[in-house]
Amino acid sequence: MNAYEEYQTMPLSLSFEEMERLHGRMLAAIGSDQDALELYNELLEKAFRYANTRAEWTLLSLSERANADSARTSLHNSLIVKFNQLARYLAQMQQDTSWRSELGYEEENPYNRKRIGDMACYLAFVCGCCSR
User: Fold this and answer.
1) Could you give the CA distance from residue 132 to residue 11 in angstroms, rounded to a whole number?
2) 106-110: long-range contacts (C-beta < 8 A, 24 or more apart)?
3) What parts of the chain have a pLDDT lower than 70?
4) pLDDT for position 1
């Protein structure tokens, strides 16, 4: 089983197609709204930092993980805040925010926290590929 297949067996995992669809709906809601674009860019900054931290996690020893755990949690929390801020703003502008509900909320299921992190990794992947 390859890594992506293994990921797909994890609770509340997202397929590439689902992430692509969610991202497309997010971008459609943002459109050319400058305030929304600014919030989206702030979200991307957090997503890039979080994705890098998550990717490096596999290389850390147990003691290094223990030392970095609170910083990783804080970064993850700030990432979730950015998703929420963007969704709140778009809702105020009467734009579609169903993508945020589909990602889920940690209060509904603890695995939604991981799902949001997965989406951040997707955003970093797509932006990285587009930057070639």
Assistant:
1) 33
2) 106/80, 109/12
3) none
4) 86
CA distance 90 to 96: 7
Rounded to whole angstroms, how far apart are CA atoms 15 and 98? 17
Q: Say whether pTM exceeds 0.90.
A: yes
Tell me which residue of 43, 126, 124 sits closest to 89, measured CA to CA.
43
Phi-psi region of 43 (alpha: psi -120 to 50; beta: other; left: phi over 0): alpha
List Cβ neighbours of 24 (8 Å cut-off, separation of 6 or more). Answer: none
**Calpha distance 129→132 (Å, rounded):** 6
Buried (b) or exposed (e) across 115-131, using 16+ Cβ within 10 A? Answer: bbbbbbbbbbebeeeee
Q: What share of the chain is helix, strand, coil (3-state, %, to 5)?
A: 75, 0, 25
Token reading at 100: 């945020």
